[in-house]
Each structure stands twice: as structure tokens, then as C-alpha cells.
TrEMBL record:
Protein name listed in UniProt: Uncharacterized protein
Length: 273
């Protein structure tokens, strides 16, 4: 309810005992003194057990999250079923796909190949008299390109500056393209504007239809990797430094040509197509 008085509809409930609520700006939790704390309440409305109610102004970003807890820190079985008042123009809660809807790209390859490392970092034990210490050898090395020579990344072609975004995403030294966690291969799927060949053959894997996961992706040598991880963001600027957001966070509507799905591929080794 918007308040405890009057004939407001009771929504949600406390289970087994009184609970507390805290509403936070954005999609993550917050502390009591955090500026993102939009409101909090203990079990204050009629009911058995008493139900907490929080009224707040929706944040400018349009998303809020709710934290729940037992009213007593010594109990764990007191639970809160959270619901939004039906006339509040608010939807709670959203699915993971609704919250993380910006497809970033895909990562694929193998980081566990010792002969394909561009550099090695060792921790060496040292002694100063009877005092033991440790020294890192190789931490300041600079490797052009990817440290993992068999790790690759492609970017969603909806990025306005996909290559620049991807390099800043995977490289510790993006200005020189050095100390990268993966080699950027190009757009993940075929774009018609401009016409660029995609690196992945499947745009939506068959295991969970509709989740938009890339599969069967190729590296620079056209070797096929059958396993990939597709990442999604909440907003395009989630992992971009503030000073680079105007350059890298742009998204455009990109027409794409659907590619046919293919039968299940062998695991775990890549093979030539």
C-alpha cells in the first residue's frame, strides 16, 4: 500500500515473522547512509505478521531494487514477499533479461594453454634475515596484443564504435592495444550497414531459445570454437570509464541478416571448418 491508513489494497506479505525493506536507486543494493537509499521501513502495517511499506519517488534512471531482511538479525526464516502497488506505475520484479538487455558481445577460446601465454608472472619467495617476503617478477611486462594467444572476443554490431569499445574492454593498455585479455576478432554477426562479415555462425543458441547467445565463433585464422560466453549489460556504459563514455557507449540500430542454425558441434576442441 501507499500508506497504512485508509482502504489501500494490501500487497505483498511477511512470512513467519516481521520483516524490513530498503529501496535503492538502480539495480544493486545500498547501505543505510548511501545516497541511493530511496526509503526503508520496518513491519508497520496491519497484518499477521506486520507488513513493512515504503513509499518513494522513482529515480531518474527508471530502475530500483528492493532489499529485504528479517526484523531480527538472529532469525533467518522470516521472509518478505515484495509487490508493488498496482496503481503506482511501477513493475516489480523484472526478469534478468529485462534488466540486462544490452548485448555486449562474446568471449571464446582457451586461457589454459601454457604454451600460448604471451608472458609469465611469477611470485618469488624472498628472505631478509628471518623475515619472509614475496616479490612479483614480470608484473610490469608489456605484451603487444593479447597475453592469452588463444583467447578471442567479438563485439555486437549494434555498437557505433564496436572495435574501439572492444579494445577498451579487453586491454589494460588500449591506446597501444597491449596487455589484452583477448584478441578482438570483429563483429559477432553479419552486419548489413556497413556490410561486415560476422565471426559467429549462430546468433541464438538452441539450448535456451530467445536468450540471444552467440555460438560457433571463429578466430583470426578461421578456426571454429564451439563454446562461447555471451555477455549482456544493463546500460551501454556499465563498464566504460566516465571520460570515454561519449566516444564508446553509442549504440545504433543495425539491420542484420539471420544466419541458419547448425547441428550440435563437438566439444571441447576447436576445429577447422
Amino acid at each position: 500500500p501507499l500508506s497504512c491508513g485508509g482502504l489501500s489494497l494490501i500487497v505483498g506479505s511477511s512470512v513467519n515473522g516481521p520483516t524490513v525493506l530498503r529501496v535503492c536507486d538502480g539495480i544493486a543494493g545500498c547501505d543505510h547512509l548511501d545516497a541511493r537509499n530511496l526509503g526503508e521501513a520496518t513491519g508497520s502495517c496491519a497484518g499477521a505478521p506486520a507488513a513493512p511499506v515504503v513509499s518513494f519517488t522513482c529515480p531518474a534512471g527508471g530502475y530500483y531494487s528492493v532489499m529485504t531482511a528479517p526484523a531480527s538479525s538472529t532469525t533467518v526464516e522470516w521472509l518478505a514477499n515484495v509487490e508493488a502497488y498496482p496503481d503506482s506505475a511501477s513493475i516489480y520484479g523484472l526478469s534478468e533479461q529485462q534488466v540486462y538487455s544490452v548485448r555486449e558481445g562474446a568471449f571464446y577460446g582457451n586461457i589454459f594453454l601454457p604454451n600460448e601465454l604471451g608472458a609469465e608472472v611469477d611470485v618469488v619467495e624472498t628472505w631478509d634475515g628471518s623475515k619472509k617476503g614475496y616479490r612479483v617478477v614480470g608484473a610490469d611486462v608489456i605484451v603487444p596484443g593479447s597475453i592469452y594467444r588463444k583467447m578471442f572476443s567479438c563485439y555486437d554490431p549494434a555498437w557505433s564504435s564496436g572495435a574501439a569499445y572492444a579494445v577498451n574492454r579487453v586491454c589494460a593498455l588500449p591506446s597501444s592495444g597491449s596487455n589484452c585479455a583477448a584478441s578482438v576478432t570483429g563483429p559477432c554477426f553479419t552486419s548489413l550497414s556497413p556490410p561486415v562479415a560476422g565471426k559467429c555462425e549462430i546468433l541464438d543458441g538452441a539450448l535456451t531459445p530467445g536468450d540471444g547467445d552467440y555460438e560457433a565463433c571463429h578466430d583470426h585464422d578461421n578456426v571454429l570454437w564451439t563454446q562461447s560466453v555471451t555477455t549482456y549489460l544493463h546500460t551501454p556504459c556499465d563498464v566504460v570509464a566516465k571520460e570515454l563514455r561519449t566516444q564508446l557507449c553509442g549504440r545504433a540500430s543495425v539491420p542484420t541478416k539471420p544466419l541458419p542454425s547448425r547441428e550440435e558441434l563437438p566439444f571441447p576442441f576447436p576445429r577447422k571448418k
